[in-house]
Amino acid sequence: MTEKILTGRELKKKQFRLSVFPKKDPVSRSEIAEKTGLNLRTIASYAEEYKKLGFIVEKNVADGKGRPAVYYKSNINNLLFGGISITFGKLYIILMDVNRYVMGAKEIEMLGPDASAAEFIARAMKAFDKLLLENPGKKLAGLGLCINEYRLESKYVNAFNEFASITTNKYAVPTIKTNANSVALDRLKYLLMLRGNIALIHMADEIRLSLILNDQTASNSEHWRKKLSHFQVDPEGTECYCGQRGCLDSYLTHSGTIRRYCRSVGIENTKDINIYKFRLLLEEKDPAALALAHENGKRLGKALLYLAGELNLSRIYLYTVDSVTAAEASETLHRLGGAGNIIIEPCWYSASDICVGAAEMLINYYLT
User: Fold this and answer.
1) Which of 26, 109, 125, 176 has a beta carbon 3.0–4.6 Å from 73's, enabling a disulfide?
2) Which structural domain range is residue 45 located in?
């Protein structure tokens, strides 16, 4: 169950969910029909689906006037939502109830280089099952699975994907499988009650992009990521692997920034400095680092002007982008004619935030 753009059927199911799940008291089938406009057969079909998942309980109440009335009572307070994420060599597991209270959490270190994927999966399954056993009377209602592939060895990526497949089949519950940036953006949207079209841009060894368009996680983020990465910010600039010159990807990635900084100050071995040292230099007001950050910001501003115009964005979050570059990008975008109401700001999130957010994506899906 990867939520993208809601179809007509999904919108109807959402109407049904919101007419039953948040309620404390039973709701009759006829009341749901009156409130939503759904016919009784459709309501019965959706109810059967959610009964099997444990979300509702059906009751028949006789009123002495013929066939008993059908009522649905929410069971959502007895459900658990799981979040499982892997990043930087650690697996995070969390269980939350519908009120977003943490009912259990576990952090698992990756096994050594000689350990097999089967050993890792066995440890993860054991930890998850133990958390479930610690919540008797509760039923698992959904899983949010999130992987952050940045600097993650391929064997762990493969192991997590296998683990995700096993858990999905074992528990047979609705599952969302996504990436860290999409989870972070969804969480920001919920916490800050954001509306409009929103982007989160992750500048690392490559440029990554997550989008919320028309209040839904966009299914075509990869298409726009490629357009942003290879947006030409300098026609006479550095040659890109795509064949053209001056692509944003050649400048704003961490490797591109470090390479150009080392060249500007005469450092031959780029291994002598990394992005963290570069940010320390910015804090220390190093002239070469500041000049490069302002240059990066101007180029990023051009690219964001294009992206914002194409997608009618109202807010852009920049993840792992220093504040100097972010401020210059915002100023450049507005100076070049970008709408004054577009907000651009840096953002940061932790690994634990992502695990929580993966579980919350399920809760948000069912209750908002």
Assistant:
1) 26
2) 8-74
